[in-house]
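F.,

This is the one I mentioned.
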């Protein structure tokens, strides 16, 4: 039974991936808190007794078997754990705990090839075919998440997000004459390429050391810069404009952009990335909200989100 199918008051037994855990005290009594997940949802959990043995072996990404009851704490679901143990290797597949993109893997691969084939600029086309011609990089791109949990946090999420950004860029080209379509589409396809080095995938999505210390923007620029060096005659000004797209696509210094957008294409890419990632974030909130018409307060957006009266009606029924 999937985690999303349990209701408050249900008894629960199953295997879950540990996303977070901490040993705390309340009035001198130690207790264990966790956030656990399967492919469908994540939930907080608490255990008051009998965790001393397992806590010594826990780490982020551990898979545990839990027996308990689903209740609520501060208006949010919470599992009260009665028994817990580490899962044995033969009892699970790590991919069982990771969400999958709604777009089938073969369609993601076909979209990638179609976009690359649409780029007619010889140097940019060579760059894309060289990069995605590396089987390891291609596979990583098509399976990597677009985020750890905020948006497109799924196997294939990076490709899904990237193709959404490219589609918005294509629309902008049709609306605003003078945009360099070849440069913008290439930048859209490569803007988050560094995320294949930012995240490691086990039973959870977690940051790599370089992902934390360098970040996907810097790593993506390095990957593209190195690939450009291997293409004879690649125009220096073209390389500079493309790297500017990658380095500025976060749009603001506080969002880890080392430089602000300073070309028309860079502004388009920034807004396209913001739009697609925000829509992905809202899709996650809607899923988490169940039948409720309003989300819980979303700290990253600084507001509640309304999903419509039809949800109010469904909830009343």
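My design for it:
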């Amino acid at each position: 039974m999937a985690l999303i199918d349990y209701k408050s008051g249900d008894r629960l037994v199953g295997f879950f991936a540990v996303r977070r855990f901490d040993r705390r005290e309340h009035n001198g009594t130690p207790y264990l808190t966790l956030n656990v997940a399967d492919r469908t949802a994540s939930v907080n959990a608490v255990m008051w007794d009998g965790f001393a043995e397992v806590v010594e072996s826990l780490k982020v990404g551990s898979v545990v078997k839990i027996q308990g009851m689903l209740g609520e704490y501060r208006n949010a679901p919470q599992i009260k754990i009665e028994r817990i143990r580490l899962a044995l290797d033969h009892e699970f597949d790590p991919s069982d705990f990771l969400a999958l993109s709604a777009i089938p893997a073969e369609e993601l691969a076909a979209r990638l090839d179609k976009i690359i084939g649409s780029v007619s600029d010889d140097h940019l086309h060579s760059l894309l075919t060289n990069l995605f011609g590396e089987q390891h990089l291609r596979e990583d791109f098509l399976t990597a998440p677009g985020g750890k949990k905020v948006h497109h946090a799924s196997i294939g999420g990076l490709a899904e997000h990237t193709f959404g950004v490219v589609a918005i860029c294509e629309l902008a080209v049709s609306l605003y004459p003078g945009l360099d379509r070849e440069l913008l589409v290439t930048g859209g396809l490569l803007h988050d390429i560094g995320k294949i080095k930012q995240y490691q995938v086990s039973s959870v999505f977690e940051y790599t050391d370089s992902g934390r210390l360098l970040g996907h923007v810097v790593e993506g620029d390095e990957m593209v810069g190195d690939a450009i060096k291997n293409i004879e005659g690649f125009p220096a000004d073209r390389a500079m404009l493309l790297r500017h797209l990658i380095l500025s696509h976060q749009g603001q210094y506080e969002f880890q952009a080392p430089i602000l957008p300073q070309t028309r294409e860079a502004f388009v890419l920034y807004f396209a990335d913001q739009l697609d990632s925000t829509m992905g974030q809202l899709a996650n909130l809607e899923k988490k909200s169940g039948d409720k018409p309003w989300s819980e307060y979303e700290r990253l957006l600084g507001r509640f989100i309304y999903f419509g009266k039809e949800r109010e009606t469904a909830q009343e029924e």
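The mean pLDDT is 92.

Talk soon.
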